[in-house]
Amino acid sequence: MRKIYFKSSSSIIKLIINEEDYNLIINDEFLYSYIPSLNIVDSKTYDASIKIEKGNTNNINFNYPEIIYQYEKFNSKDAISLIEYVFERARQEKGIICIHGAGAIYKNKLIVSWGGTTGMGKTTLALEISKKGAFYSDEKILIDLNNLKGVGRISRQYISNDYWRKIYNTNDKYLLLGGNKKDYDIGLFIQPIICDMFDYTFDVWDKDKFFWHLYEESSRKIRGTSRMFFDRTYPAVSLDTFSLAKSRLELIKKFTSSIKGVYYKGCIDNIINKLDKLM
């Protein structure tokens, strides 16, 4: 069995795995489009370990920080999903949460376009903002709640349909994202619904409303509410604890007292025109 050390942001997971399964994981493009800021490192210390092995049944022992994943038939995407789930716990213990969203750099600050469902216009908005700055990430962004910074992103973007292949002028399934590996101060959180309409709805949230939405998003991920394994037959067990949730709650209260959160519904031009005033 090999021992491999994966790093995401400042967290490290030791993976114990056979050579064949390791090669399937490391050669799966999904690894780099799903786990933000992923690197393989040499390390004597780690935050958690995952042992992956063949078994008589499909089973996961979620005894954090030592996870055991047993499978009847190996699936690399399943294993990658588990690795990211364990990273979620390890990162949150250091005050770092993962946001489902897209990001762009504007006036040297990170604008986070976020929201729970697909098709809201998160990536569309980030791409439009990037015309005046730079594109940062799609799908996932790591947020350091202590330092009010964006500290991680995916390195490869999954091109999910023909619309995005046309936008990016590519037939590839994955797009390598270059540049912008540095940390950025957070400028703004926008929850958009981009659509064609003459009028628009615009709401600058008070800090309590922003707190509620951000706490919900960060808690959903670590509690595994939508995470399943073994061909969607095995629900994830929550990796959250009371003490970790309490710490996250307090950090998000401070974060949302310092960073502005807004909701916008309408055409993209109106929100772009408001950026300077919002910043």
Please characterize this protein's 3D structure.
With 279 residues, the chain is an alpha+beta fold. It is 32% helix and 35% strand. The protein has 8 helices and 18 strands. Strand 1 and strand 2 form a beta hairpin. The longest helix is centred in the N-terminal third of the chain and has 17 residues. It is globular, with a radius of gyration of 19 Å.
Core attributes:
single chain, 279 residues, alpha+beta, 6-stranded mixed β-sheet, 5-stranded mixed beta barrel, 18 strands
Decide which structural class fits the backbone. alpha+beta
E-strand count:
18
> N-to-C terminal Cα separation, in Å?
51 Å
Q: How would you sum up the major sheet?
A: 6 strands, mixed
Gross geometry: globular
Strand order of the largest sheet: 3-1-2-4-6-5
- Seen as an oligomer or otherwise, the chain set is single chain
Average predicted confidence as pLDDT: 91
Number of helices: 8
What order do the helices and strands come in, and which of them pair?
Layout: E1 2-8, E2 11-17, H1 19-26, H2 30-34, E3 38-41, E4 48-54, E5 59-63, E6 66-71, H3 76-92, E7 96-106, E8 109-114, H4 122-130, E9 134-137, E10 140-144, E11 149-153, E12 156-158, H5 162-168, E13 174-176, E14 184-194, E15 201-204, H6 207-222, E16 228-229, E17 234-235, H7 242-258, E18 261-266, H8 268-278
Parallel strand pairs: 2-4, 4-6, 8-14, 14-18
Antiparallel strand pairs: 1-2, 1-3, 5-6, 7-8, 7-9, 7-10, 10-11, 11-14, 12-13, 15-18, 16-17
